Amino acid sequence: MKVCVSDVDGTIVDNLGNLSKYTIDTLIDFQNRGNLIGLASGRSYLRMMPIAKRLKMDNFDGYLIDVNGLSIYSFRDNKRKIIERLKKNEIRELFDYLKIFNSEIKFYCDDAIYTYLSEDIYNLKAKIRSEMKLPEDYPWTSGEYSWLSDPRDGYPVQRLISEISEIKHEVNKISICHEYDTLVVIQNKFKKSKFSKNFDIQFSGLRQIDIISKNISKGKALKKILNELKIEDNEIYIFGDSENDISMLELSENSYIMENSKIDNYNNQFYIAPSNNNDGVAKIINTLL
Questions:
Q1: Over 90: is that where the pLDDT of 88 sits?
Q2: pTM of the prediction?
Q3: Backbone angles phi, psi at 47, to 5 degrees
Q4: Could you give the C-alpha distances from 145 to 83, 133, 205, 209, 286, in angstroms and in order?
């Protein structure tokens, strides 16, 4: 049995978040031949579920690794195992520190996003919303490619906050959103702070960096699955495009970064797949068929 594990945004879906018919047909065929698919994402499992269902992963005992390794969802028994969430005292301390960066801070929960905006970012978004004539209930959250997006398909609860006490859900991860160059500066400063001892800060997209506990990663979660299934390394094919994918890409000799990736492919450690807009994952998997 072969196993294909893919990141979602920037990897298996195109820049508009869509799955092509070619990708769907190829990956269903892959599973029909006795193989297994896993999806590993910074998204919550609820927002990954529609993609998994389109790929019929629920018919083939597939797996979901969500929120950069926070939990594992198995379609074999339809159960989700939480590995570790952020603690309330950690969230408060991180929030107090991150506010100095004059940016957008998002608190991701299973089905909710709580968003804090600095005054400058709020004014910028208010101007964009006015120009676009968006309705009042349109979310204020940033997206992969823009200052505003609508992720209510996976996070139906959207709230603007000014204080941590306004968050009414358990928090899975904290994200900072801004332009890429600004995020590089923020990431470097965070790595020199006291928080770097217990938390990793990784790009999950061109306009977002995620802060998670060092106890979790996509790689650690995937390793648990592979040990359970007793899969050999040479039977695993892994695909990703961002820093938060590296921990799982390093688990296999058959790992691919997308042509659109910003990962530093040091010493050609990983193979290159065609871009996410060019069905890169499906084209590599098709060669295995």
A1: yes
A2: 0.87
A3: -80, -15
A4: 30, 19, 9, 13, 29
